[in-house]
Amino acid sequence: MEQVILASNIKCSGCAKTIQEGLTTLAGVQQITVDVPEGKVTVTGDNLQRSALTQKLAELGYPEKTATSGLVNIMQKAKGLFAGK
């Protein structure tokens, strides 16, 4: 089984190493590949629980990118622009 997760805040090989070390502690994980430029984490293993993977990534500081997360960021920035007026 393979799970592919797009995660935020992946900037360097140190981030990739942190992710690999953190996710290997989860049950069923056999292999982890991190594509730093794409922010893509690919996990291969048996009986992988996507929710456990995304929760662990968030705990490590690399939350899953979602369609709504970008919208929330835009709304927060817009509120900040109008707060001073």
Automatic annotation (TrEMBL):
<dbReference type="InterPro" id="IPR006121">
    <property type="entry name" value="HMA_dom"/>
</dbReference>
<feature type="domain" description="HMA">
    <location>
        <begin position="1"/>
        <end position="65"/>
    </location>
</feature>
<dbReference type="InterPro" id="IPR036163">
    <property type="entry name" value="HMA_dom_sf"/>
</dbReference>
<protein>
    <submittedName>
        <fullName>Copper chaperone</fullName>
    </submittedName>
</protein>
<dbReference type="GO" id="GO:0046872">
    <property type="term" value="F:metal ion binding"/>
</dbReference>
<dbReference type="Pfam" id="PF00403">
    <property type="entry name" value="HMA"/>
</dbReference>
